[in-house]
Amino acid sequence: MLQQSKFGKLLMPFFALFTIVNIAFLIWADKWDAIQINHSVIIFGNALLFLLSLFSLWLHLKALNNKNPNVLVRSVLGSTFLKIILIATSVLLYLKYVPKELRSKLAVIIVLFLYIIYVYLEVRIVLKLNKKKTPNA
Which tens digits make up the pLDDT trace of 22-32? Predict the structure, then answer.
């Protein structure tokens, strides 16, 4: 089982990315809004991605402790499916309920780019942990 302090260390890249993005879009909110990038959309998307990544990492860490390798595969597929469904639902709700003249397509694209960064961090952490767990053959 993973100790509390080690789990906190694993979360540091996520906290760093979350904090940097939020600070950048809060401090320069007027500048982002001036170029038609709605800072509120990015902050909400960043928070959603952060929470989904933490949940996904928790699932992966639980799966790494299982002796059955299929559990890790199921956790990866399940968390990816969950993330895609929630992000797609959020985008569709945004497109449906926000008037066309107030929509920010660039903000949605930035959030999708952030999704790729969060997934990269998650995969890097899980692969590193899996490599440490697996003895060399």
Answer: 999 999 999 99
How many whole angstroms separate alpha carbon 51 and alpha carbon 83?
A: 10
Give yes or no for a contact between 59 and 75, defined as CB atoms under 8 angstroms apart.
yes
Kindly report the CA angle at 2 between 59 and 80, in degrees rounded to 5?
Answer: 15
Give the angle 9-11-17 at the CA atoms, nearest 5°. 120
Widest distance between CA atoms in the chain: 59
Residue 91 makes CB contacts below 8 A (sequence gap 6+) with 108
Counting every residue, how long is the chain?
137
**DSSP states of 16-29 as a string?**
HHHHHHHHHHHHTH
The structure's pTM equals: 0.89
* Structure confidence by residue, pLDDT tens digits, 66-108: 888 899 889 989 999 999 999 999 999 999 999 999 999 999 9
C-alpha distance from residue 112 to each of 23, 64, 83 (Å) = 18, 27, 11
